[in-house]
Amino acid sequence: MKIQKITPFLWFDHQAQEAAQFYTSVFENSKIINLSPMVSTFELEGQQFMALNGGPHFKFNEAVSFYVNCDNQEEIDFFWDKLISNGGKEGQCGWLKDQFGVSWQIIPTILPELMTNPQKSQKVVAAFMKMKKFDIETLKSV
To answer: I want to staple 34 with a disulfide (CB 3.0 to 4.6 A). Which of 41, 50, 54, 82 is the partner?
Structure first.
């Protein structure tokens, strides 16, 4: 196995194993590499992650988030619903926090295309500023 040059390292209070198992249940192309009491390693869509049971010293915040490209509304709905399950919280404009406090952006892949037209981009921004979970059809229709 080739060693990944850069690996996201997530600091949990005591839920590293639970988080690794949860995330690998959400993403189809994923696997647990190692579960241990201190550090768990897992892979999501080819990206390796490490999770540490480091104690309550640090908390996640929106300064770092994971951006999920979604090809259609079904994908948006799936990831949104899965990631807010078990106590996650909806945010604005496609953002959410999962049950562990990790921030995610669930974004339609068509969004950059919709933003390229200067006349339409302001309407698209105005529309998604009112949304929590993105609605592709609404964004296309503005």
So the answer is: 41
Number of independent structural domains in the chain: 2
Residue 131 C-beta-side C-alpha neighbours within 13 Å: 21
Positive or negative, the CA dihedral 106, 112, 113, 116 is positive
* 41 and 75, same domain (yes or no): no
Q: What is the per-residue pLDDT across 16-59, written as a single tens digit (0 to 9) for each?
A: 999 999 999 999 999 999 999 999 999 999 999 999 999 999 99
Question: To which residue do tokens 């192309």 refer?
Answer: 29
Q: Tokens 């480091």 correspond to what residue?
A: 54
Q: Are residues 45 and 110 in the same domain?
A: no
Model-level pTM greater than 0.70? yes
Question: Domain of 32: which CATH number?
Answer: 3.10.180.10
